[in-house]
Amino acid sequence: MVVDYLSWYKNIYTELYPFEDCWNLLSSSIPENLDLLSRHVEAVRDSDIRDRMALSNEWGHPVLIQRIAARNQVESNHVMPAIGASNGIYLVCAALCRPGDHTVVESPAYEALLAVPRLLGVDVTSVPRRPADYGIDAERIADAIGSRTRLVMVTNLHNPSGSMLSESDLQALGETVRKRNENVRILVDEIYRDFIPGDHRPAAALDDAVITVSSLTKVYGLGLLRCGWIIAEPALIEQFRRLQSSVYGCGSRILEVVSSVVFDRLTEYRKNALSGVEYNRKTLHRLLQPLITGGLLTDPIPRYGCVYFTHIGGVEQTDTLVDFLAREYRVHVVPGRFFGDAGAVRIGFGGRGTHVAEALTRFAEGVQVFTGGRRDS
Length: 377
Description:
- The protein folds into 2 domains: about 5-30 and about 270-370, Aspartate Aminotransferase, domain 1; about 55-265, 3-Layer(aba) Sandwich (Aspartate Aminotransferase, domain 2), CATH 3.40.640.10.
- About 45% of the residues lie in helices and about 15% in strands.
- It contains 13 helices and 12 strands.
- A 7-stranded mixed β-sheet has the order 2-8-7-6-5-3-4, sandwiched between helices. The chain has a 3-stranded antiparallel β-sheet with strand order 9-12-11, with no helix packed on it. The protein has a two-stranded parallel ribbon with strand order 1-10.
- Helix 4 (about 60-70) runs parallel beside helix 10, helix 5 (about 85-95) packs across helix 9 (about 235-250) and helix 11 (about 265-295) packs parallel to helix 13 (about 355-370).
């Protein structure tokens, strides 16, 4: 039996891909915007592409590094490209931790934050976020830190709840952790951050103890470019670079050049993403708020992001519900056990509007039937 989330997710996607009558609420990203990407690449003059392709990317393509740095309002020596955010998480954990060390991770949590340190022989302590709003309790995290602790890891926006940490929340976390152990670093996965409108400094720019990882995947729908990055103090970037050389040498110059073109036009991708997700959020409110009001779903719909994590009234373990929805309604959601909370499900609503609406309609009806509610005729 497959027990890890990514293997389960990939297998489900492989099985669903050929079928048009499957209603997918699994994805935590917006759809790939290949039309927009093609137009942007075609708009760049051949000479510009050739000039960028001629540059070495041994430590990451210099134009891409410049674009990432400018976008995040940091100097270029604070930036290192990675092959997606997951690769960034691995590089940070592997560079800073040794077998027998200790990390503190939020709960519920994206599975990679737990799986990567365990793969490296590092002990993990899970600290629950606050009930209801999924906020961070900095003091509770600090209480879990000991002499062997090397990393604290959180996400912002939180995966899976979509809860937002403010700059003051992040600064308070940094100050509290530093008081407990000044050698501990804080990794903040900000892959969903740009779903929040406006400009924001990365968490790494707020405190020297903080490391940011992110990518073009979730908000921008460009996972095919495998463009991720790490933002940290220059001394840490040098540590990550040395490990990167041993793990995969360097990235793809072609993908890094195309990614640099995307950064030149990032505003258009983001505008498209925010518009689509906000349209779907209204659909989410329209179709699921009656279930929230009636107590069948027990968590509020998040203000930002494209995922909704909710508990099901009267259901302590949602695997049976997930199987029922897939079998009877052809709608697919993620069981909460993959995030450490077996009584919840995660709904991804970043997809095409009509698809999301039909999938949510089926989900709502299936939950009512499963829990003994009335099926509308």
